[in-house]
Design goal:
This protein is α/β, with parallel strands linked by helices and 389 residues long. It folds into two domains: 28-165 and 351-386, Medium-chain alcohol dehydrogenases, catalytic domain (Quinone Oxidoreductase, Chain A, domain 1, Alpha-Beta Complex), CATH 3.90.180.10; 169-321, 3-Layer(aba) Sandwich (Rossmann fold). The chain is built from 14 helices and 18 strands. The strands form four sheets. Strands 5, 7, 8, 9, 10, 17 and 18 form a seven-stranded mixed sheet that branches. Strands 13-12-11-14-15-16 form a six-stranded parallel sheet, with helices on both faces. Helix 5 packs across helix 6 and helix 12 packs across helix 13 (328-343). The longest helix has 16 residues, at 328-343. It is elongated. The chain starts with a helix and ends with a strand. The structure holds NADP nicotinamide-adenine-dinucleotide phosphate. NADP nicotinamide-adenine-dinucleotide phosphate is lined by residues 74-76, 168-169, 172, 193, 195-198, 217-218, 271-272, 293-297, 318-320, 376-378, 381. This is enoyl-[acyl-carrier-protein] reductase. It is an enzyme of class 1 (oxidoreductase). Its EC number is 1.3.1.104.
Length: 389
């Protein structure tokens, strides 16, 4: 039943501390007015996304009401909106619409604002992340049950942007470095899309574990040197462009870098596709895996048979959603470990383009932020940061 206007009107409460005055908005009788970025059909974000408002009643029983703090815009979210991603968003009429709608976004961090009497293991004020893909995180508030959430046990020293981006990119990099080949300190790996969220995480984790990295990025008209320096400051040993890699003298350069070829390149990571993958694979040591986890260029890979027959290079894939479903406890450990490294300043978070989402934010600003993710050469990942909602 829709709450009356009087009940849902918002009260402003002023909380005083000795040094600051904070304004906090509390909905009357615990009702929350949620704003949600939704789609009812698949298509380009600019064509299908719209902002929808609905009311959330106070939680009872097993229910928790959460308020989002930060939610990134990942490439897979766009593919999901386009209808070309294997995991489909959940279309529902439970958000007070006559026709089914789905909420965009898969990753994020939220705060528990209230809970029903049967909820165990979560308290008001706890930060939570989503257990699985498909939750729909581009929204100010949601109501759900505990099984869909993972509590962040220690949020001290962490910002919402850091916690809201921990579960996809860093965990993907972590698993790919650990699960395909037994890399030893001093071993090399080679990756493309090195300035992506996953790429940056792989550089840093690799450095931490003693591996050396050859990092491929696309040449930028402006800011290229700054990007190279940025990746080196994360721990990248070598940063080259895809054109460098394709050049005739790259093999000689690589020989010099790897001590005459005596230091093996034992793993390749690919999120781009196309002929670039062949140029990477031919530098791998015999019997090494090349792991594909993304396809940003949308170009297929054509494999020279010699790589399979004579060098026994294996081409494999990784999908963090599948891994997380199969290993929920290890996923929690991975998240906790990355957050601990972040807290200690050992793991740097990704550059972001913040999109502030407050009560007055217009639909067009939010939709444009999602659409903009499709453009390359960005300065950072788009992330919704929720303010006074
Ligand atoms: N399989 C999994 O479990 C998994 C998990 C996480 C991510 N992913 C995938 O990994 C990829 C990177 O994700 P992310 O979140 O790390 O990315 P991100 O931080 O949003 O960065 C996007 C990256 O893609 C590059 N890029 C964009 N358009 C490109 C194009 N047309 N050709 C070549 N490169 C292009 C960008 O390079 P420029 O700066 O040069 O534009 C940048 O390096 C995506 O495909 C994503 O779906 C997969």
């Amino acid at each position: 039943m829709a709450p009356s206007r009087a009940i849902t009107s918002t009260l402003k409460t002023t909380l005083r501390t000795p040094t600051t005055i904070q304004r906090r908005c509390i909905s009357a009788y615990g009702y929350e007015q949620a704003k949600v970025l939704v789609l009812s059909n698949y298509g380009e974000p600019k064509d299908v996304l719209r902002l929808h408002g609905h009311s959330i009643s106070p939680p009872t029983g097993d229910l928790l009401t959460i308020k989002f703090l930060a939610a990134p815009i990942n490439p897979a979210d766009i593919n999901q909106i386009q209808g070309v991603y294997p995991t489909k968003p959940t279309f529902t009429t439970s958000l007070s619409t006559p026709d089914p709608i789905a909420v965009g976004g898969n990753e994020g961090v939220a705060e528990v604002v209230s809970k029903g009497g049967n909820v165990k293991g979560f308290e008001r004020g706890d930060w939570v992340i989503m257990k699985k893909q498909g939750f729909g995180t581009w929204r100010t508030h949601a109501q759900t049950t505990a099984e869909n959430l993972v509590a962040i046990k220690n949020k001290d020293g962490l910002r919402p942007e850091q916690v809201g981006t921990v579960s996809v990119n860093p965990c993907t990099a972590y698993r790919m470095l650990k699960d395909f080949v037994d890399l030893r300190p001093g071993d090399w790996f080679i990756q493309n899309g090195a300035n992506s969220g996953v790429g940056r995480a792989a550089i840093q984790l690799g450095k931490l574990w003693g591996y050396r990295s050859i990092n491929i990025v696309r040449k930028r008209e402006t800011g290229h040197e700054a990007l190279v320096e940025d990746l080196k400051s994360l721990g990248a040993d070598v940063v080259v462009t895809d054109e460098d890699l394709a050049s005739k003298d790259f093999r000689d350069q690589l020989k010099t870098l790897t001590n005459g070829g005596r230091e093996p390149i034992r793993l390749g990571l690919n999120c781009v596709g196309g002929s670039l993958v062949n140029n990477m694979a031919k530098h791998l040591s015999p019997s090494s895996p090349l792991v594909t986890y993304g396809a940003m260029s949308k170009q297929p890979v054509q494999l020279p048979m010699g790589l399979l027959i004579f060098k026994n290079i294996s081409f494999q894939g990784f999908w963090v959603s599948r891994w997380s479903d199969a290993h929920p406890e290890e996923k929690e450990k991975c998240v906790a470990e990355i957050l601990d490294l972040t807290r200690r300043g050992v793991f740097r978070d990704i550059p972001t383009e913040r999109v502030e989402w407050g009560r007055g934010t217009k639909e067009g600003e939010l939709v444009q932020a999602v659409q903009g993710t499709l453009e390359g050469y960005r300065s950072g990942k788009g992330i919704f940061v929720f303010g006074d909602t």
